[in-house]
Amino acid sequence: KLDLLNLIDGAVEGGWSVRGAWLLELNEGRAWRWMGRRDRDELDDKTPGGNPSHGLLADEAEQIVALFHEWGETDRSHRKLAHRGSYLKRVWVSPSSVRRVLAGQGLVLRPPPRPGRSVRKPFPDWAEYVPNSIWIYDTTHFPTAGMAVTVIEDLVSRKWIADIVSSEETSTQIEIVFTDALEAEGLLDKVTAIQDGLARIDVDDDARPVLLAVSDNGPQMTSGSTREFMALAAIAQHFGRPGTPTDQAWIESFFGHLKVEHPHLLAIEDPAVLRAELGVRDPQRTGCTRASVTSAPTTSTKAAARRSARHVAEDSQKPGDDALPGAATTGNMIEHTDPTMLANQTPICVVESDTRHIQRIDDPLTAIPPDERASRLLTDAQTNQALPRRPKRRGRRRSRRPRW
Fold first, then answer.
1. Residue 346, φ and ψ in degrees, nearest 5
2. This prediction's pTM
3. DSSP one-letter code for 132
4. pLDDT: is 10 or 53 the higher one?
5. How far apart (Å, rounded) are the C-alpha atoms in residues 291 and 333?
């Protein structure tokens, strides 16, 4: 400012007027104000903000500093310190005011120490990377049916060994599903032999466990009853880190594929139907022994009936060796008369309504008596042709883009 005023003074002495200050990109009125402030020795800028009526008082600043000395090591945050003052009814200020007052006093809050990076606990040395050596299990939920499903999977072969569908998540379900898994894999006799021996079950012996069970830190996994059962069954437990689901990535990935690829399981309301869906077996698929994971099951719904009718209509137009014109082929004919029937494309699996027993039928035509096959095929073909089709949309589709 002083340099600009000196230039203006030199121009005035040379015959110019103060209006020529616009050549220096300076307003004439501002130039006169600066000259007056120079005469009063007030050319330096004053502190911005002035004296607002809502500014912090001296007592409030003192309370902020006192809170820092009392609770600074506990809260370690200007936000928490501001809330602390209101809780104690000592000062009511914003977090930014606390930060500004502390910065003016040269006080710095130490941030809380960052937790160290945890390292995943490795498997024991005796656990071999072969089937039936490391099992992993976890529980997932199906909210519509109100059920929780506990699944045991072989970590090496990714085989779905056993599962249990229940409304509870306790150690009882863990004991039942592990007993079924040991029996299914032929390890129950080995466990019984160990139980009949003289080995002490209260002493950890790395050479004695039958297999390793990997899980998270759920209450049903870490309970005392589950620990006692695992000790009796000679099964060693291995827990992942808390809050780290990637330690159980094998079973978490399996649940993700199960629910994403087959969303119909999340829409089932009847627990019995859910148990039947999860119990359908498919021996042709290796690595996973449930047909529900390999093919989408069909139920007696209108959508499934239309889908089956479309397959029948397409097959009736293809040349073939069928005994009757328009009859469905073996691979595409699916019954839709029984609500409890669960079927795949080829072969089909029928669930009995009374006993819930699952029967595998390689040839779907064998499920119908010989004297009823011809009439049933004709009836299905006529019914499928009578189903209405969705009308096609005519005209140009309007754009949904907004007009600006």
1. -150, 130
2. 0.48
3. T
4. 10
5. 18
